[in-house]
Amino acid sequence: MPLYEHVMIARQDLSNAQAESLVEHFGTVLADNGGNVVESEYWGVKTMAYKINKNRKGHYSFLKTDAPAGAVQEMERLMRLHDDVMRVLTIKVDEHVEGPSVQMQKRDEREGRRERR
Prior knowledge:
With about 120 residues, this protein is of the alpha+beta class. Helices cover about 35% and strands about 40% of the residues.
């Protein structure tokens, strides 16, 4: 089956648990249509470059999936119809990179720094 990577931005006024439950919900939609979520990451609330639907920030989530094209199309359709989801980006990849994504690696590097005086 083809491999995909998805980035989803949810509204800023959701709680962390609600944003992560959105990822689980769309993972079950994918599973119901013959695909599966290989890995998912919650990147947290980030400031966007410009306002989307009067929101300056959003909850970012990242999914690595292994699914047929029809399952991905259905998941994207439901994401675009959902009121809490502002943007979706899906990319077809040749293979998934092992380990954490670049965003999560940046977070790990920041935690290792010493504090300023």
